[in-house]
Amino acid sequence: MNTLQAVSLSHEMASLEWRQALQLSKDEAAEFMTSLKSWGFVDGIMVITTCNRTEVYYESANTPTAVIQDELLRFKNITDKDAYAPLFSHYTQSQDTLYYLLEVGLGLRSQVVGDRQIIGQFKESYQLTNDLKLGGPLLHQALQTLFRTHKRVHNETAFRSGAASVGYAALERVTDFIPRKEFISKRMLIIGAGQMGTDVAKYATSFGFRNITLTNRTDEKAAQLAEKMGLYFIPYAERLSELNQYDVIISCVSAGEQLGTSQLSSYHNGHKRVLLDLSVPLSIQPEATALPNTVLVNMDQITSQTQAVRKAREASTTEVYNIIDEETLLYTHWLEDLPMAKTISELKGFFASVLESELQKQTGLEQKTAAAALAKATLDRLIRRPAGTLRASEGTNRKILIDSLNQLFQIS
């Protein structure tokens, strides 16, 4: 019988350098999943690949997680398997795999706890699996459990409220001054390619920004990040000459020259220009807020919000895990019912084949619709009592009944 299993390499065990080597593009993920299915390693498969993790969720009766791990390394042309082996985590029991999947999908194992992006990444990955017809019942039920659990956490706890990331909170702050529907037409400049600038850049596209430019004191670092994330890049030395072309400027550099009114000058695009200073010490002079059509938000105004959110999320974690426990128990019950459902389905198929065979012998039945209706009604009555008895049984008694039916009717 199949079990749901997972192989994971994430930020919890591996640094960025190791994770980057295993990242898969959408096309690579499709090729990798298709190959495993065609070779008979899996009956259902889904791959999650982000900047923080590469994970393979699959269902199989006979393929150990070590085989999937080796196939992933081989696919990425990594020959030093021994070096990578300690960085992987393995989940081999369906309930354990589901529990881990829920933790990841809800953002409990993200670098920023409660990360909002991860659920969208699961949906995209699951969509790819479905598009390629690579799903299976265990995987399907697990993802439906995740989506239901995510909805419950959102509705029943404070875990999903607000933004725990400073970068995410900063972008939410922009919506106070510019309608989100207009983001697609606005130009954004991110100054700084460190952790904060990277965080902002990561979320900006999900907010709807399409014209995003990155600059940094080290041009090479900014250029590499811009290329990786599909953003524009300008050399640091040229940033001042283009400042007034941007509707949103987010400064994430410290100990550098402050931007003042002389560099920013006036802004006359008919809307608010938003300046976000996420630097300590400040990198934008406070006087900039006096410029026409300009609003300035500093780090303190952002972090006070994220600190409150973090506290609320920490307080809600126990509630979230209680929901996970409940949903995992429901999944366990569903797993326990699978053999029963399989037996009922096969018994119904056996009865249907007998009825069809006998009806075909009755050449005098001219009304095919009536014959089909008769067959269905008979089949429903035949299956009702054994199915009801099976559903009412539990534990050892259920197993005895299933084994007896399989043996009596030779349906398995």
Automatic annotation (TrEMBL):
<feature type="domain" description="Glutamyl-tRNA reductase N-terminal">
    <location>
        <begin position="7"/>
        <end position="157"/>
    </location>
</feature>
<dbReference type="GO" id="GO:0008883">
    <property type="term" value="F:glutamyl-tRNA reductase activity"/>
</dbReference>
<dbReference type="InterPro" id="IPR036453">
    <property type="entry name" value="GluRdtase_dimer_dom_sf"/>
</dbReference>
<dbReference type="InterPro" id="IPR015896">
    <property type="entry name" value="4pyrrol_synth_GluRdtase_dimer"/>
</dbReference>
<keyword id="KW-0627">Porphyrin biosynthesis</keyword>
<keyword id="KW-0560">Oxidoreductase</keyword>
<feature type="binding site">
    <location>
        <begin position="115"/>
        <end position="117"/>
    </location>
    <ligand>
        <name>substrate</name>
    </ligand>
</feature>
<dbReference type="Pfam" id="PF01488">
    <property type="entry name" value="Shikimate_DH"/>
</dbReference>
<dbReference type="Pfam" id="PF00745">
    <property type="entry name" value="GlutR_dimer"/>
</dbReference>
<comment type="subunit">
    <text>Homodimer.</text>
</comment>
<dbReference type="Pfam" id="PF05201">
    <property type="entry name" value="GlutR_N"/>
</dbReference>
<comment type="similarity">
    <text>Belongs to the glutamyl-tRNA reductase family.</text>
</comment>
<comment type="pathway">
    <text>Porphyrin-containing compound metabolism; protoporphyrin-IX biosynthesis; 5-aminolevulinate from L-glutamyl-tRNA(Glu): step 1/2.</text>
</comment>
<protein>
    <recommendedName>
        <fullName>Glutamyl-tRNA reductase</fullName>
        <ecNumber>1.2.1.70</ecNumber>
    </recommendedName>
</protein>
<keyword id="KW-0521">NADP</keyword>
<dbReference type="InterPro" id="IPR015895">
    <property type="entry name" value="4pyrrol_synth_GluRdtase_N"/>
</dbReference>
<feature type="domain" description="Tetrapyrrole biosynthesis glutamyl-tRNA reductase dimerisation">
    <location>
        <begin position="320"/>
        <end position="411"/>
    </location>
</feature>
<dbReference type="InterPro" id="IPR006151">
    <property type="entry name" value="Shikm_DH/Glu-tRNA_Rdtase"/>
</dbReference>
<comment type="function">
    <text>Catalyzes the NADPH-dependent reduction of glutamyl-tRNA(Glu) to glutamate 1-semialdehyde (GSA).</text>
</comment>
<dbReference type="InterPro" id="IPR036291">
    <property type="entry name" value="NAD(P)-bd_dom_sf"/>
</dbReference>
<dbReference type="InterPro" id="IPR000343">
    <property type="entry name" value="4pyrrol_synth_GluRdtase"/>
</dbReference>
<feature type="active site" description="Nucleophile">
    <location>
        <position position="51"/>
    </location>
</feature>
<feature type="binding site">
    <location>
        <position position="110"/>
    </location>
    <ligand>
        <name>substrate</name>
    </ligand>
</feature>
<dbReference type="InterPro" id="IPR036343">
    <property type="entry name" value="GluRdtase_N_sf"/>
</dbReference>
<feature type="domain" description="Quinate/shikimate 5-dehydrogenase/glutamyl-tRNA reductase">
    <location>
        <begin position="183"/>
        <end position="303"/>
    </location>
</feature>
<feature type="binding site">
    <location>
        <begin position="50"/>
        <end position="53"/>
    </location>
    <ligand>
        <name>substrate</name>
    </ligand>
</feature>
<feature type="binding site">
    <location>
        <position position="121"/>
    </location>
    <ligand>
        <name>substrate</name>
    </ligand>
</feature>
<feature type="binding site">
    <location>
        <begin position="192"/>
        <end position="197"/>
    </location>
    <ligand>
        <name>NADP(+)</name>
    </ligand>
</feature>
